[in-house]
């Protein structure tokens, strides 16, 4: 969904840098190799083959693979509703190889990426309710790395790397319960950023909903300026 400031989330898919792809013996399927072994994907369609080849090169917007199928679908959906069901099935079978990346349509680069740590590693980001409070999950650690801020937890299915300050600003509010709506009001970031980041962090196990009534908004929160 495009927000009032004109921006929308962009969901990108890629394979881990160490993943190799080759045809199987029949020529109809693919063999994916990585540090944890071999995965076979039999009888892939041309669209699935092209998707995996592109994902091997880096983050890709899957709706660009078959624009005619995606026509009429929301541009900020993780997978186009009208897409090839075979592609959805294959991606669901190799979640432990797939890196999920969140961006917005401002050409500023990705906001964050989620790297799988388990097998399988299901990842289903959803748009959080604007008035449902969330906070950082217990046991999450953060560390500065050369290409951003890393987040991980012993119980999480993914490791998250924050690529841009906008994503880090959202994380900075999660030490206490906060709603996506209040985060968007408080931060100098496009409106699509807080719900997008919170949705990905929740899917990765880095954030969790706070049960009970939402915090009361007695006054507009102070706006954090850069």
Write the layout of secondary structure elements.
Blueprint: E1 9-15, E2 20-23, E3 30-34, E4 37-41, H1 46-57, H2 67-70, H3 85-93, E5 98-104, E6 112-116, E7 134-136, E8 141-145, E9 148-152, E10 158-162, H4 165-172, H5 180-186, H6 193-204, E11 207-209
Antiparallel strand pairs: 1-5, 2-3, 3-4, 5-6, 6-10, 7-11, 8-9, 9-10
Give a description of the structure.
This protein is an alpha+beta fold and 226 residues long. It has one domain (9-21, 29-209). It contains six helices and eleven strands. The protein has helices spanning 46-57, 67-70, 85-93, 165-172, 180-186, 193-204; strands at residues 9-15, 20-23, 30-34, 37-41, 98-104, 112-116, 134-136, 141-145, 148-152, 158-162, 207-209. It has a six-stranded antiparallel sheet with strand order 1-5-6-10-9-8. The protein has a three-stranded antiparallel sheet with strand order 2-3-4, covered by helices on one side. A two-stranded antiparallel ribbon has the order 7-11. Helix 4 packs across helix 6 (193-204). The protein starts with 8 loop residues before the first strand and ends in a 17-residue tail after the last strand. The model has no long low-confidence stretch (mean pLDDT 87).
Summarize the structure.
The protein has one domain (9-21, 29-209).
Task: Fill in the keyword field for this structure.
226 residues; alpha+beta; six-stranded antiparallel β-sheet; 11 strands; 23% helix; NADH oxidase
